[in-house]
């Protein structure tokens, strides 16, 4: 990890939904090759922050730069948005696969349409990433024929087919049965080992402690605590974080068992 090279910087950013203030002037940065876990209770703003990083949500004030693209510039345009979306992959809770397309077709659609790659080139790349996530034999299957864990691994492979420099994960295991969580987190751990820059909103504390370099704990729209993963999770400084972690007792550790 090159800790001296920030690829995401945000300063005093705010995001409101009507009268509801969701992000309340938060600041920070994500460095190249770093894995950052964002934790916190439901409604604290962590998923909104993640969605701001790829412009699924537009910030209301502050400064936000992702991979050299200024998302807060008044003249931010569609060309920059397309550039951003090719550089930043995102994996959602609910997979978001196209149900009428096979696994292979899901993977090659964006490289062909957005990147202008040939079908042959895209198919070869899709095969590589399906092999990487252990689903090469499912290329001709449809999403409804897959388990939740398989769907999420396909969704990760689909993002990788765009050759992103940054990967965002929004609670990627929250919709999965407990026995399927491990297979998805294993793929994410391998990506981290290979040096992919990753921001992961998660409730999987063992994964955060063992794989993330750093943890950001959000509470009511602010960054309440952050630091090295093992330090923040094992020795929380604030009562709020201690309370949050104590509520998760019982699910911590399940993915590695």
UniProtKB/TrEMBL annotation:
* Domain of life of the native organism: Bacteria
Q: Which InterPro entries match?
A: AAA+_ATPase (IPR003593), ABC_ATPase_HisP-typ (IPR030679), ABC_transporter-like_ATP-bd (IPR003439), ABC_transporter-like_CS (IPR017871), MetN_ABC_transporter-like (IPR050086), P-loop_NTPase (IPR027417)
- Residues of the ABC transporter domain: 8-245
Q: Report if keyword Cytoplasm is assigned.
A: no
**What EC number(s) has UniProt assigned to this enzyme?**
3.6.3.28
GO annotation, biological process: organic phosphonate transport
One MF annotation (Gene Ontology) recorded for this entry: ATP hydrolysis activity
Gene3D superfamilies from the UniProt entry: P-loop containing nucleotide triphosphate hydrolases
CDD domains with a match to the protein in the record: ABC_HisP_GlnQ
Q: Keywords in UniProt for this one?
A: ATP-binding, Hydrolase, Nucleotide-binding, Phosphonate transport, Transport
Q: What class of enzyme is it?
A: hydrolase
Record's family? Belongs to the ABC transporter superfamily.
What protein am I looking at? Phosphonate-transporting ATPase
Source taxonomy lineage? Bacteria, Bacillati, Cyanobacteriota, Cyanophyceae, Nostocales
